[in-house]
Specification:
359 residues; Rossmann fold; alpha/beta; four-stranded parallel sheet
Length: 359
């Protein structure tokens, strides 16, 4: 009997951890760490023109999976005003209209056991073992990414950090047990410390904020992290899945990135829930201004209602707290050359500000 396949929506490097988390269901994960032009083309052709890039790419991902005979899919649910709460139903309808039988499960906000877990009904031991393994992989990926952002801005030979990162991700994918993952995690500092750096360089510090799908998909955001790193910028992508999981399960209520702390930071500028990742966009912009960051880049898919709603708020924070905020929208027509040109101009502005301040 063939093991059923489960398509997991694309979440960048986190796809490695999400794939590990479903193995307890006795299914084979079907996923990609990066979107391909073919997947995006399939999604654009099938989706309504007005839908956002996140909808189009996940639709294309599930269509490609269905074309390869995958029977099931899973994607994140949502509550509140973001249209993500309707995506699963709309994508299921689009698949059915095209004659595909792939069934999409929603993950979250449906009791202790989501429908996906109820359907495959793993044993408690299997379920807990894979949860521990997936959580540790998520935290390990967070650590890898943080090390890469810091190192890439000061590397002597362009591309060294990316090569170390790609090798590390392949090794992490091969780690199948908690002890193996824990042992791999201990090697992270040594892996990045071997990269020759410019010890006297003081890179600009720029935050990446906004909608999670674009933040975490290097194909959709035109590889913005590596582009900025190549320009000598130390970036921090503020969507870290480890932190997001702690907030979802209300762990670490008193941490500085907990929901309560973020609401307090955002309250002077955002008194009403907007949905999506709007709260974190506002709160972290305030925090970056308080901590002396050089600038903020706010990314979103074109037409994303929550992120568009807070753009005037981010401009107000920029004026009040003297921190440059660059608003960056993406759709299927976004040009990488144009994006690089705009990022270079933004970095020039930040460099000029530093010189004026004598820093």
């Amino acid at each position: 009997m063939n093991m059923p396949q489960l398509a997991i929506e694309p979440w960048g490097n986190y796809s490695l951890a999400l794939a590990a988390s479903v193995e307890c269901l006795h299914v084979r994960p079907w996923t990609h760490t990066c979107t391909t032009p073919e997947i995006l083309k399939l999604g654009v052709e099938a989706s309504p023109e007005f839908s956002c890039l996140s909808f189009k790419v996940t639709t294309g991902h599930f269509i490609k999976a269905a074309m390869e005979g995958v029977e099931y899919g899973v994607m994140v649910n949502s509550q509140g005003t973001c249209r993500l709460r309707y995506y699963r139903m709309l994508q299921q309808k689009l698949l059915k209209e095209r004659g595909f039988n792939l069934f999409i499960f929603g993950l979250g906000y449906d009791g202790i056991k989501p429908p996906l877990i109820r359907h495959f009904d793993p044993t408690m031991n299997d379920f807990l073992r894979c949860c521990f393994r997936a959580r540790l992989k998520v935290l390990t990926i967070d650590e890898l990414e943080t090390a890469a952002w810091t190192r890439r801005a000061v590397e002597q030979r362009p591309g060294d950090t990316t090569r170390v990162m790609n090798t590390a991700l392949r090794d992490l994918d091969q780690a199948r047990t908690v002890p193996e993952i824990a042992a791999f995690r201990k090697t992270i500092p040594a892996r990045f410390n071997q990269i020759p750096v410019h010890a006297d360089r003081r890179p600009l510090k720029v935050a990446l904020l906004g909608e999670a799908t674009i933040l975490r998909n290097s194909f959709l955001n035109q590889n913005i992290e590596e582009v900025l790193g190549g320009l000598g910028v130390e970036v921090r992508n503020f969507f870290l899945l480890g932190e997001e999981m702690r907030n979802i399960f209300n762990i670490g209520l008193w941490s500085k990135n907990g929901r309560s702390a973020l609401r307090r930071l955002a309250k002077p500028y955002l008194g009403t829930p907007v949905g999506g990742h709007a709260l974190t966009s506002v709160a972290h912009t305030v925090r970056c201004a308080q901590e002396g960051w050089d600038g903020v880049i706010h990314v979103s898919p074109a037409g994303c209602m929550p992120e568009i709603s807070v753009r005037p708020v981010l401009r107000k924070i920029s004026q009040d707290m003297d921190i440059p905020v660059y608003e960056c929208s993406f759709d299927e027509h976004t040009s990488q050359v144009g994006m690089i040109t705009r990022l270079e101009a933004f970095v020039d502005v930040l460099t000029g500000r530093r010189r004026k301040k004598g820093l």
